[in-house]
Design goal:
A hairpin with a 2-residue loop joins strand 26 (about 250-255) and strand 27 (about 260-265). The strands form ten sheets. Strands 1, 42, 43, 44 and 45 form a five-stranded antiparallel β-sheet that branches. Strands 6, 7, 8, 9 and 10 form a five-stranded antiparallel β-sheet that branches. Strands 11, 12, 13, 14 and 15 form a five-stranded antiparallel β-sheet that branches. The model is unreliable at about 1-25 (pLDDT under 50). This protein has a single domain (about 30-420), classed as Methanol Dehydrogenase, Chain A, CATH 2.140.10. The protein is about 0% helix and about 55% strand. The chain is an all-beta fold and about 425 residues long.
Length: about 425
Amino acid sequence: MKPKASRFVPWILAVACACCLALPALVRAETVSTESLVLHIDFNTFVKESFRVSPDGRRAAHLRRTQEGWFLVLDGRSQGPYEAIGPNLTFSPDSRQLACVAQRDGRQFVWVNGRAERGYDGIGESPVFSPDGTRIAYAAEAGGKWFVVVDGKEGKGYDGIGTAPVFSPDGMRLAFAAEADGKWFVVVDGREGKRYEAIGGAPVFSPDGNRLAFLARAGGFWMAVVDGREGSGYEGMTCAPVFSPDSRHVAYGAGRAGRQFVVVDGKEGSPYEGLSPFLLFSPDSQRLAFGARKKGQWVLVVDGAEYGPYDEIDGPPVFSPDSKRVAFRVRSDKNWFVVLDGRKGRGYEAIVTPPVFSPDSRHLAYGVKMGREYWVVLDGREGPHYDDVVSMGGGTIVFDSQDRFHHLALKGDDIYLVDVRFR
């Protein structure tokens, strides 16, 4: 159910595990939580890797497999059977729609909110919704050719389609990588770009939708192509291009002669032994953070300053909405911690969700694990204990306001929506 894919960019690094924290300048909060049942899980038929939480953190979907076939369970309601389905389920950004790939009578098709689109010989990666949730696109195969289907309309056929197509933030533009005659290129709004030996990953639109960047290989070297202009050639790339929120800056990771560094607006930074596969600009576009390997350990680099060293850094850092604070997850020895503004907090066996700031930047919450119990920590205070604080499938903590957040939690075979109010 996958299309012919472009070559992977070399040197992609991964860092693993979870996190925790102390809150030196955050306001401690008293909390009150309420629970409501979302769904019951039959673990005898549950397909764990299919579990998906909606972006708003209030809905859940998963697959079941029985002797009758495959079933899709959405908000506790089962639909099917199908010959095959998923396993990737995709919610729209507004959480109102769900899409997946299913199969009947030997034909694959995209299923959207109970509606089946046209069947094909094959469907590529999971369907992609536009940011406003009104449009959908995916790669499909028929007669030996791959093409992109947008809102039910088929595009030009190619020998292969790379990763899933990408919508611009306003949903009006579309880009994807394609292959023809052994060469790869990026197609933007139906226009084919320059041919390359390979395209690395998916193209990236700037937040304002006016700029585009992607990784490409030519003459055995990798480069970033930004707004059609090719950057310097490198032996490998460690991170795809990332635009700042104001769309004015672009950064990516690259490597040469055994050293790796971040390139910002074409300027190379300090070299390191390795880079983590993430780069993050602050909401005000003035700060940049990334993980780097130095003398066999990891440091987090924020505005050129190094925090650490640590045995591991897990996932990207998190900036507060006002851009003044930064939190990230690290491991030292056997324990995991959250580091807030350079200060390492209490250690846990695992941090199961990333730290999340409240909209006013005054509070910080994250999920933790000790032994067989899980709970949410808000400003250093522990919440109710559960069999799990749901983090798989996109599950996380979502702030609804300055004094309220919610998350999903498991008790026995039931998943609950936990609403937390605090003051």
